[in-house]
Amino acid sequence: MPPSRRSLLSAGIGTLAAGTAAVGLVESGLVPGRTMMHTALGLTGENGVVPEVAPGPELSGTFTSAERAGAQVAWTVAYPPGSPTDAALPVVLALHGRGGDHRSAFDQLGLDRFMAAAAADWPTPFALVSVDGGASTFWHRRRNGDDPQAMLLTELLPRLAERGLRTDRIGLIGWSMGGFGALLFAAARPDLVGAAVVVSPALWREYSEVRPGAFDGPTDFAANDVFADQRPLDGLRLRVDCGRDDPFAAATREFVAGLTPPPAGGFQPGAHTVGYWRRMAPEQLRFLAWNL
């Protein structure tokens, strides 16, 4: 016997209700798929496009880092177009994300070309410096003696000063793992950091939530908990950006709420992706140029 009109209607309403409930669960984060769904619906925003311009001059080098337990560390300095490589420019350190290295800021994000496209209009051109901080150190001292923060302070910055760059007040930009590292560095040395941009920072409120390998254990997590005391960041010229569909968005919102005054930046359509980071790069570099 074929189904009645009433039974078909009831089934349709049930399916619609189930579908609505499923969307609600995804939206609330109770089941996975929110970011995938929002990306498919175009709700995470457009991907940024690296400008098709020639970058300025670059210098690269390596050194054996005592602070990083004898690791061979590579670095690159990107200058604005037309700048000599001995120019006394202020420094912005770019701290890469997990799995990255000193080339990530340029080869992956294209920050040298974003800088080349806009530096002529900046009040304070700067040299953008990227260095190997370790693929998964999370930019803090680890139990094996690898200390990328100390490397920045005692090994990299003196080398940059020897090349004529200004290192008395520096800028920072970091994304994901590097965003966390930038917060750690700025909180430890607020006297040294003139301005900082933190992008999609890898933040967790509890050790039980931490991605494996980010910390050596609960004690290490507690010793590097940027939520524990946010007062050193008070008054810092700080910009924090995070995509609304980023897995770190909730923790980042909580962190931003604890800052005085509230930082620049905000929460835009986006996820934890290179496309989002590229889209945000022009305004973030401009922020540094106007606040160094």
Automatic annotation (TrEMBL):
Signal peptide positions on this chain: none
Pfam families in alphabetical order: Esterase (PF00756)
InterPro entries reported for this sequence: AB_hydrolase_fold, Esterase-like, Mycobacterial_A85_antigen
SUPFAM superfamilies per UniProt: alpha/beta-Hydrolases (SSF53474)
Superkingdom in the source lineage: Bacteria
Keyword Cell wall biogenesis/degradation included in the entry's annotation: no
Keywords assigned: Hydrolase
Keyword Hydrolase attached: yes
GO molecular function list: acyltransferase activity, transferring groups other than amino-acyl groups; hydrolase activity
Name recorded for this polypeptide: S-formylglutathione hydrolase FrmB
Species: Actinopolymorpha singaporensis
